[in-house]
Design a protein that fits this description.
Number of strands: 35
Oligomer: single chain
Helix content: 10-25%
Structural class: mainly beta
Shape: globular
Number of helices: 5
Largest sheet: 5 strands, antiparallel
Length: about 500
């Protein structure tokens, strides 16, 4: 459920009455789907609605949200898989299931890497009967990535510019660096989506050892052999960057270019004539990067011809401008929501809904890939939905609202994949597509109670029951939760009160 709060209100989370109301709304407005069947006596039997597929080496992990019991009978599950999107030709998996809180998982093994497999799940409720099949989901097993090659390290002012060759099937990369040739004492930068990174805040004149490895859901490669880099004071301005592409958008232009060495910033300018920019033109600065870069200059007028310029900067000065590209901003064509394959945009990285848990008193070695993000923290896609909801309320419905709140449990455990973002891929990130907007008028004290209740949600990192109340919010509001004992603090003597460890205060 997405809730809108009308004026007056400026604070947030769930009193018990509101939780009951939210639950009632979901029950009243959720409709049956293909995975619902009738058991003995016409009892509705509902199976999993959404499946998440994670690729491993010669295996696929399938995950879904535990369904509610029927007449106090807990569901067991049957998992089917096949090489075509035809459940009648599918095989029954013999792998068992594992339940952690509300998340159920199974791993189908002995599959062929890079072959596409379709998966279905149904729920059984003892003598009551079984649900229908879930909608199909598909995925391909993937091998552990190979070691990145051709690592290069270039010294810049208090930083190192690190680059390497792209690795097939790598989702992200990790770079380790330190002042000795021991990986044990090295610092690590993770979640690098492209083959290159700038390591900042280093000491000029100091030698640093640098390694890189590739990561995907099947595992991590070994680290590459190290290269040594020495940060040094820059003595020359950067080279002129070359524009690869200028693509017009709605009141903006997206520019792509290849990064140049020893740049600390880039400036994009838009002019009305084919004359180099001056201080009176529209210009914006962007942070440096490695390899191919992209950024958009906005605030432009649709239907107007602009000349787009680019230059690099550092402490010595700017590179100067090279040639320009022409572009005419225009309104995008309307999204065809009836076409699942309609391309909305492009994703340069793999976006997942789980992360590795750090070591703690309760999980001494940590837990890999078990923490559903929407059940532990705000997520970008959850906040994006809230921003869109506020826009819809104000611009389409003409409602006066302060902000939007989204129950994190309404996000599915499916993340966006690398590549084209389509109507179908966006829809797959919604767990309950038939839910409704609800407008709630609340006093400030009740808004405070709403956020108090969210801070009090127990977050074990296992996606347990009740953790969906974690809040996603629109840009009009922000909140902070403080924990008496930080979840990753292992210095606190045992025995430890789980309440202080997992419950916070707004």
């Amino acid at each position: 459920m997405i809730g809108f709060l009308e004026k007056p209100a400026r604070k947030t989370f769930f009193p018990a009455l509101f939780l009951k109301l939210a639950l009632m709304v979901v029950l009243l407005f959720s409709v049956s789907c293909d995975s619902e069947s009738k058991g003995d006596g016409g009892i509705p039997l509902t199976g999993p609605q959404t499946l998440t597929i994670t690729s491993f080496d010669q295996a696929l992990q399938v995950a879904w949200t535990k369904v509610v019991p029927a007449q106090a009978i807990d569901a067991t599950y049957e998992v089917y898989y096949g090489e075509t999107d035809d459940v009648t030709a599918a095989h029954l998996s013999t792998a068992g299931t594992n339940t952690n809180g509300s998340l159920v998982t199974t791993v189908i093994r002995e599959l062929d890497n890079y072959k596409t497999y379709y998966v279905w799940v149904k729920a059984r409720f003892g003598s009551l009967g079984e649900s229908g099949f879930s909608p199909s989901a598909f995925g391909s097993p993937i091998a552990v990535p190979t070691v990145p090659l051709n690592l290069s390290v270039l010294g810049s002012d208090n930083s190192l510019e690190v680059a390497w060759d792209n690795v097939a099937d790598a989702y992200t990369y990790e770079v380790a660096y330190g002042e000795s040739n021991s990986l044990n004492s090295a610092a690590v930068i993770g979640d690098i989506s492209a083959p290159g990174v700038i390591i900042p805040e280093l000491v000029n004149g100091t030698s640093y050892y640098v390694w890189v490895r590739a990561v995907n859901t099947a595992g991590r490669s070994t680290y590459s052999s190290f290269e040594i880099g020495i940060p040094e004071i820059t003595t020359v301005a950067p080279a002129v960057p070359v524009i690869i592409e200028a693509r017009a958008g709605n009141k903006k232009v997206l520019l792509k270019w290849r990064a140049v060495s020893r740049a600390t910033a880039y400036q994009i300018c838009a002019t009305a004539t084919a004359v180099e920019p001056t201080d009176s033109d529209i210009c914006k600065e962007f942070d440096p990067g490695i390899g191919e870069m992209a950024a958009a200059i906005d605030g432009l007028t649709n239907g107007t011809l602009y000349y787009i310029w680019l230059q690099a900067k550092n402490n010595i000065g700017p590179s100067g401008f090279g040639g320009y590209e022409e572009a005419v901003p225009a309104t995008k064509p309307a999204i065809n929501f009836n076409s699942p394959s309609f391309v909305i945009g492009y994703s340069t990285g793999e976006y997942i809904q789980a992360e590795d848990l750090p070591p703690s008193h309760f999980h001494v070695t940590g837990i890999a890939g078990k923490d559903r993000l929407s059940r532990r923290k705000e997520t970008a896609i959850g906040n994006l939905y809230c921003d869109g909801a506020v826009w819809y309320a104000r611009e389409i419905k003409s409602w006066t609202v302060d902000f939007a709140f989204l129950n994190g449990g309404l996000l599915s455990s499916i993340g966006l994949k690398k590549g084209d973002v389509t109507v179908a891929s966006i829809a797959s990130t919604v767990a309950y597509s038939n839910d409704y907007f609800t407008v709630v008028k609340m006093k400030g004290e009740h808004v405070k109670l709403l956020f108090d209740a969210a801070a009090d949600v127990t977050h074990s990192g296992m996606g347990g029951s009740g953790t969906g109340a974690w809040g996603m919010v629109s840009k009009e509001i922000r909140y902070t939760i403080e924990y008496e004992i930080p979840p990753d603090d292992m210095s606190t003597p045992l025995p430890l009160d789980k309440s202080a460890y997992y419950r916070g205060n707004i």
